[in-house]
Write a structure and sequence with these properties.
2 helices, 248 residues, mainly beta, Porin
Length: 248
């Protein structure tokens, strides 16, 4: 994390060198890579088991903005500050598989369980450098790299069991926000200095999945509710983003 803060300090100094600033907004698809998109079975998921590594993330969306501060001494080179939001769901097979997992490890049959699946939200904030080369007045090429910090939030995973008497037991896992070192590299085309098409790889770091588990039993069961802290698998987040940018 010290390297990230040092980079922010260097970027802040560089920005003061030249006041000319360019802004852009971008949106596109977010494609999980590596363990983040892997799904083998429930027992290998990082949100379920302490030794789990799979993320089971599905294709999602990317929204973000970028500010580029020109460096006067080098034509086309600038310092960039970026902020992004990545939103990914979870593999469509997870809900049925998790219900079967609960049938094997808790109560009832898979049909007795109603599952609310979690979603992934990643928010990386970065600074770096961008170089743009104008082939002609209509087309330009750009490349960039940046480092920073990623904030990850996993939404709740909950499972509701209905017994033969229509009484309900609810298992709910809530997950903490985590932070990790992150970087990205990207390249693409700019058309008429207004629209860009780019491909970017984001490595959003690795961190332990932590949170809290609650189990609420119906009073007819005569059991004591559960409220425990949990620490499950380690999740490594990688993402390939294909996106369209609009420059101002």
């Amino acid at each position: 994390m010290k390297k990230t803060f040092l980079f922010f300090a260097i970027a802040a100094f560089a920005i003061q060198v030249n006041a000319q600033t360019h802004f852009s907004l971008h949106l596109g698809g977010a494609f999980p890579s590596g363990d983040y998109g892997a799904y083998n079975k429930v027992e290998k998921l990082s949100i379920i088991k302490p030794k789990g590594k799979d993320g089971s993330a599905s294709m999602g969306i990317n929204l973000g903005m970028k500010a580029k501060f020109d460096i006067a001494s080098v034509n086309g080179l600038g310092v960039i500050a970026t902020g992004d939001i990545f939103f990914n769901g979870i593999n469509s097979d997870f809900s049925d598989d998790f219900a079967k997992y609960l049938e094997d490890n808790e109560w009832g049959t898979a049909d007795d369980w109603e599952i609310t699946t979690p979603k992934y939200l990643n928010v990386p904030i970065m600074v770096g450098a961008n170089y743009t080369y104008n082939v002609n007045s209509n087309i330009g090429l750009f490349g960039e790299a940046a480092v920073g910090v990623n904030f990850r939030k996993i939404t709740n995973l909950s499972a509701t069991y209905t017994d033969p008497s229509n009484d309900e037991a609810v298992i709910k896992n809530t997950f903490d926000i985590s932070t990790s070192f992150a970087f990205q590299i990207g390249a693409g085309l700019i058309f008429n200095e207004n629209v860009s098409l780019g491909i970017h790889y984001y490595s959003l770091g690795s961190s332990k999945v932590k949170g809290k588990q609650t189990i609420e039993y119906p009073s007819s069961w005569g059991r004591t509710d559960v409220n425990d802290k949990i620490k499950v698998g380690k999740l490594t987040t990688g993402m390939l983003a294909l996106r369209l940018g609009f420059h101002f």
